[in-house]
Amino acid sequence: SELAEELGLNLKEFDKNILANIFTGQTLIDNNSPLALAYAGHQFGNFVPQLGDGRAVLLGEVISKKNQRFDIQLKGSGHTPFSRNGDGNSSLGPVIREYIVSEAMFHLGVPTTRALAAVATGETVHRETPLPGGVFTRVASSHIRIGTFEYFASRGDLNNLKILLDYTIDRHYPEIKSDLNICLSFLKKVADAHATMVSHWMSLGFIHGVMNTDNMAISGETIDFGPCAFMDEFSFDKVFSSIDRHGRYAYNNQISIAKWNLYRLASCLIPFIHKDENKAVKIIEESITSYIDIYEKKWIEKMGLKLGIFEATLKDQELINLWLQTLEDGEHDFTLSFRDLLENPELFQNDPLFETFHSSWQQQIQRQNKTDKDIKSLMETVNPVFIPRNHQVERAIQGTINGDLSVFNEMIQVIKNPYQEQAQFESFKIPPKPNERITATFCGT
Ligand code: AMP
Ligand code: MG
Fold first, then answer.
1. Distance between Cα 36 and ligand 2 center (Å)
2. Cα dihedral: 312, 315, 316, 322 (round 10)
3. Residue to mutate, 46, 50, 55, ligand 1, most ligand atoms under 8 Å from C-beta
């Protein structure tokens, strides 16, 4: 209801039954005509020329109270022209997961799509087993993906590709409209937005799980929360997704994959750069080379802040990696360790790398012209106490499926203030016991 308010949607006048009808697509408001979007995409590295919204429909757009334009989309509302062999439905589990995790991301400060509603349909959907169905309502600053560009580019449909490009720039990056080489400016904008987003993920131990080009929004918002999860004990190669057998989208690959995805977008724009394809490729490559390290730069900045370094640069990379290696070797909890570093450093006493790390870290933070208080308050501002831990998300899902919303409601409360201690929710702070660990997640498609 808070989000509805921000969007200027007047939902208060409707009772729950009417809302359930609206947010499953049974009742249309304002005579809008829903549509499914076409897109292509590289899935696990392989190009698929036609994907599209197979189980989602765009209800329409709204202008928020802050004068921003948003899409409202139903996910799991049934067949569309792009459903292929799928049923167009979602099961309730993934609906609840996306709801919790996307809202958590928002409150953690990560650019993300948001959750407006989740409805249990009362229908059964058939996956490996029969499951209760659900519909999720997503709010996004748009649903334009890298894959949307690939759709038209791969068909050689330059007219529509140009319309899409102009539209996208108008909608997301109007400040570059009068730039001399608008395609290159556009790529740089997207690189910047994706670097910001992915470095944010990395800094929170978030693993998206399916960074296919059809799941990468041009806006730089995190989108398509499928088998995503936050790590508990740190591991560079952590994978949750049951379908990511080779670890393509493992935690520590996310930056290089984001770059790989940017090159896929760049290749769509070749025809607009120069008549001579070879020349076009050369121009694009040179341009991208000049700023591609933005991804590492942003990562270093973000990780630096977590360690109390106000302006981290390339020379801090080694220190950051030493810390991460300490966490991995000692199987420490990623989220809590950044807080413990200040508050309970004795916890790392027995870690072989810790002493080396700690002395160079101390040197580094003391070199800054900052008081201990400044450093402490920085670290408390950027290091969350609460993330939606996977085993708790699973509990919330199981509860919801059984008609008990208590864990779900508690989690929604907790994630609204992730950077603050909340004594009454202490249990959500604690990592899972070995027997509570959830090691695999499913996209539920
Ligand atoms: P996702 O894994 O959610 O990124 O989906 C990849 C593609 O599969 C998209 O084109 C989806 O629309 C499509 N898809 C996923 N689940 C279904 C389903 N149950 N029915 C139809 N299409 C689906
Ligand atoms: Mg998708």
1. 13
2. 170
3. 55
